[in-house]
């Protein structure tokens, strides 16, 4: 192309322009616009839908499912409990991965593409931009969570309907079931919140999508696998320190949160996925720290505060050189 | 030294000089460790002028621009835009400023039009008509729906300018806006800058294309090693030392006569054979009379000027490969 500024353009109206200050809502609107126009987000969403669907397909193929759903009410309730715990545990992990990627992209791409200087150059504050991005991600995460729960309910209804030919099996559900489901869902929401802050902190630190994504995605595998190394160190040294320290790892605390927050059912804790803080029992002696609900919540809260402070300070204090 | 007649932008110089100061830096400095990137810089840019900001690579131009936009916090000093300190009133001032800093930063996964929508939503109030207008202004209407990652560098540069113009800013800060543009694009960019200046907008432009700056700008500042070397109108900067360039027949003989005069000791011939000399009383008319009386009727007499490139190289000592200011 050889032409740039067309004289004809001068004939067109300039269009109304409203002189304004950058608004928090306006920034969020822009962030939603960008999120919705990123193809990768839609691909990840479809994958998440597939992952949520997969356990139902497996359940549907199991021959014993009909016995569980058409048997006594206690059996039906156990079936629904198992399903709820497994599905929420899966949701916690994969919605977490989705949010790590989404957060790293929303914050990191702005630095990587250099577009942060366009936004800041229009008078948007550094913290204002960070908080607007966070608010956008939180809203998107909540919407996604609600959709995922609704999709799970839809799939459960379909499963019960297809297997039993009706929905009467749902009559076995007790108020305690709904209370426990709500509590489990709350632990998933807490996990989502800490995950978003983790990705925010590491992306603010690295100021690049590559660094943010790499560190954020590596975090949980590292501290889950880290418990194995701590177990090995304990075996080698017989020092309780190696076990106790795992009680302060983020991943294991989030993994185990639901099982220690929810009441025992038939003497068993709720199903969770992933490594838990290490506790070894030798004879009558317990080695390591037995965590409870308060402990896991406090650990999650401390990590959340640290991540938030790191993100805020790094964003607020550092010059924008990108 | 080259001889040139004065260029059109200088016509606006006096108009610009009379305007209010819309961008001012006061003792602006930025230090990175032991390196002083910008050193006590004082600049004044007035309403309606096209202000050129020149300097060799690493002189501190982009650092200054980033400080003006609040991207970098100054170590000392301040930047005022439209009379208000950018450090305390950036949210009120910067929406009235359009900027293009270094290479155009764009959302490559979005179309050109969507880029404008995404940026426009931050401040709000940008209509579809306005987006159409700026796309037309930079010649991107045909490609507005294509993803930016498919754009050439020149097209990205134009979109960057469109983003800068999106909110109809009063002040434009453009860092190397002609990067990647073809010759026709550069000419059209220059025309656009003049049109914006005529509309009363102030344009602060950094560029390595010195000929463009000379043709486009009313005033320039040259910095080197973070320090202001000079701030002047293009006219003053490129004006010669009161010398005239005379084309005439038998220049060698004319030179010999002129050199015998008290005012003509420094006369010489340039590479084109023109006689370069001071004039009696500093007036071209007197020089003409002298030469005619001496039997050397001049074909032309023009005020001898330097081009901006020569001035720039001399002031920054870049021509000799150094960067120290003399």
Question: What's this, in brief?
Answer:
The complex is a heterodimer of chains A (322) and B (326). Chain A is mainly alpha-helical and 322 residues long. Chain A has helices at 24-36, 39-61, 65-70, 73-112, 116-120, 126-164, 175-206, 209-237, 241-244, 250-261, 293-317, and strands spanning 279-282, 285-288.
Name its key features.
heterodimer; A: two-stranded antiparallel ribbon; globular; disordered N terminus; B: 326 residues; Rossmann fold; six-stranded mixed β-sheet; 12 helices; disordered C terminus
Structural class by secondary-structure content of chain B:
alpha/beta
The chain pair with the largest interface is: A-B, 48 and 62 residues
The biggest beta sheet of chain B, please? 6 strands, mixed
Q: Which class do the helix and strand fractions of chain A yield? A: mainly alpha
Order of H and E elements of chain A: HHHHHHHHHHEEH
Relevant CATH superfamily of the largest domain in chain B: P-loop containing nucleotide triphosphate hydrolases
> What name is given to the CATH topology of the largest domain in chain B?
Rossmann fold
Global shape of chain A: globular
Give me the count of strands of chain A. Answer: 2
Could you tell me the mean pLDDT of chain A?
90
CATH class of the largest domain in chain B: Alpha Beta
- Unreliable segments of chain B (pLDDT under 50, ≥5 consecutive)? 1-18, 319-326
Radius of gyration of chain B: 23 Å
Whole-number tally of structural domains of chain B? 2
CATH architecture call of the largest domain in chain B? 3-Layer(aba) Sandwich
Number of helices of chain B: 12
- Output the strand order for the largest sheet of chain A: 1-2
Shape of chain B: elongated
Helix content of chain B: 25-40%
User: How many angstroms does the end-to-end distance of chain A come to?
Assistant: 29 Å
């Amino acid at each position: 192309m050889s032409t740039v500024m067309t004289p004809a353009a001068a004939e067109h109206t300039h269009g109304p322009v409203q002189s304004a200050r950058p608004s928090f809502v306006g920034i969020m609107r822009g962030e939603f616009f960008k999120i919705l126009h990123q193809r990768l987000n839609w691909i990840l969403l479809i994958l998440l839908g597939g992952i949520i669907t997969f356990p139902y397909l497996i359940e549907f193929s199991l021959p014993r499912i009909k016995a569980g759903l058409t048997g006594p009410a206690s059996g039906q309730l156990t079936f629904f409990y198992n399903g709820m715990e497994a599905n929420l545990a899966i949701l916690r992990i994969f919605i977490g991965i989705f949010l790590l990627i989404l957060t790293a992209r929303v914050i990191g791409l702005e630095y990587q593409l250099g577009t942060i200087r366009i936004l800041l150059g229009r008078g948007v504050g550094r913290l204002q931009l960070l908080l607007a991005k966070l608010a956008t991600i939180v809203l998107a995460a909540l919407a996604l969570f609600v959709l995922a729960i609704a999709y799970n309910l839809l799939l459960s209804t379909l499963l019960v309907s297809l297997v039993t030919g009706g929905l009467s099996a749902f009559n076995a559900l007790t108020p305690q079931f709904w209370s426990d489901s709500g509590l489990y869902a709350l632990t998933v929401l807490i996990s989502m919140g800490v995950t978003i802050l983790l990705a925010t902190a590491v992306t603010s630190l690295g100021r690049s999508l590559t660094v943010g994504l790499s560190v954020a995605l590596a975090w949980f595998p590292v501290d889950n696998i880290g418990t194995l190394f701590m177990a090995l160190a304990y075996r080698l040294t017989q020092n309780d320190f190696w076990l106790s320290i795992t009680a302060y790892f983020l991943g294991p605390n989030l993994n185990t949160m639901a099982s220690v927050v929810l009441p025992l059912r038939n003497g068993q804790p709720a199903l969770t996925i992933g490594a838990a803080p290490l506790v070894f029992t030798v004879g009558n002696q317990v080695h390591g720290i037995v965590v409870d609900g308060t402990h896991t919540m406090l650990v999650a809260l401390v990590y959340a505060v640290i991540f938030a402070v790191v993100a805020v300070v790094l964003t607020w204090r550092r010059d924008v050189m990108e | 030294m080259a001889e040139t007649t004065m260029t059109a932008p200088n016509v606006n110089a006096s108009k610009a000089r009379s305007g209010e100061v819309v961008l001012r830096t006061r003792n602006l400095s930025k230090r990175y460790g032991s390196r002083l990137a910008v050193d006590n810089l004082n600049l004044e840019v007035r309403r309606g002028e096209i202000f050129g900001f020149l300097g060799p690579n690493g002189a501190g131009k982009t650092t200054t621009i980033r400080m003006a936009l609040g991207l970098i916090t100054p170590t000392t000093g301040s930047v005022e835009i439209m009379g208000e300190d950018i450090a305390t009133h950036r949210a009120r001032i910067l929406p009235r400023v359009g900027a293009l800093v270094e290479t155009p930063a764009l959302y490559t996964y979005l179309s050109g039009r969507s880029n404008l929508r995404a940026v426009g939503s931050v401040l709000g109030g940008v209509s579809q008509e306005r987006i159409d207008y700026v796309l037309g202004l930079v010649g991107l209407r045909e490609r507005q729906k294509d993803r930016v990652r498919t754009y050439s560098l020149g097209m990205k540069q134009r979109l960057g300018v469109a983003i800068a113009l999106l909110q109809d800013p009063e002040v434009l800060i453009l860092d190397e806006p002609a990067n990647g543009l073809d010759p026709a694009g550069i000419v059209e960019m220059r025309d656009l800058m003049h049109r914006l200046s005529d509309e009363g907008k102030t344009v602060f432009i950094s560029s390595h294309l010195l000929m463009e700056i000379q043709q486009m700008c009313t005033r320039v500042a040259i910095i080197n090693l973070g320090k202001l070397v000079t701030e002047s109108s293009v006219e003053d900067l490129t004006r010669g030392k009161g010398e005239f360039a005379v084309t005439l027949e038998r220049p060698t003989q004319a030179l010999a006569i002129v050199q015998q005069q008290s005012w003509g000791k420094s006369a010489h011939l340039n590479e084109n054979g023109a006689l370069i000399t001071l004039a009696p009383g500093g007036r071209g008319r007197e020089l003409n009379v002298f030469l005619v009386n001496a039997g050397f009727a001049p074909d032309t007499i023009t005020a001898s000027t330097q081009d901006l490139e020569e001035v720039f190289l001399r002031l920054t000592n870049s021509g000799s490969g150094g960067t120290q200011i003399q």
